[in-house]
Design goal:
Strand 1 and strand 2 form a beta hairpin. The protein has a single domain, classed as Sufe protein. Chain: A, CATH 3.90.1010. It has a 3-stranded antiparallel beta sheet with strand order 1-2-3. The chain starts with 5 loop residues before the first helix and ends with a helix. The chain contains 8 helices and 3 strands. Helix content is 53%, strand content 11%. Helix 4 (89-102) packs parallel to helix 8. It is mainly alpha-helical.
Length: 149
């Protein structure tokens, strides 16, 4: 098996129960970067790991320092659903942030998202290493490309 089953995409609570707005408030409640960093690390543990059989080269996001895998499914109602994983806890946490904004959304909603500005507002852009920032940009670009068709 090289791709998760459709029901696994639809079952993900990231983006439905765990929303961008909720995470925004949780992160902004901490004025220091260290507090936000701890939350991001904890978020990574909330993301279900992909089975190792799905950690395939065709699903790897190029441009990430650590290995990261991203799967996409567009349902009949036009919504985009994503599953992701990474070897890195910080990237897993950042993936939760990204997917909280992107998962279970229509193309039009995804086209309006400005995740780069959101990450800047949260203070993440200033604290990520250049290689991590490049990885985040690669993940965001991959999601945008997949959602555009």
């Amino acid at each position: 098996m090289t791709k998760p089953a459709i029901h696994q995409f639809l079952a993900s609570t990231i983006g439905s129960e765990l929303t961008q707005e909720d995470l925004h408030h949780e992160l902004m409640a901490h004025t220091q970067w260290q507090g936000r960093y701890r939350i991001i690390m904890k978020l990574g543990s909330r993301m279900p790991a992909l089975d190792t059989e799905w950690q395939q080269p065709h699903a790897e996001v190029s441009g990430c320092e650590s290995k990261a895998w991203l799967y996409h499914h567009q349902s009949d109602d036009g919504k985009h659903h994503f599953l992701a994983d990474s070897e890195s806890r910080i990237i897993k946490g950042l993936l939760v942030l990204i997917l909280s904004a992107c998962n279970h959304k229509h193309s039009s909603a995804l086209a309006e998202l400005d995740l780069e500005s959101w990450f800047t507002e949260l203070g993440l852009s200033a604290h990520l290493s250049p290689s991590r920032a490049n990885g985040v940009a690669a993940l965001i670009q991959t999601i945008k490309s997949l959602s555009e068709g």
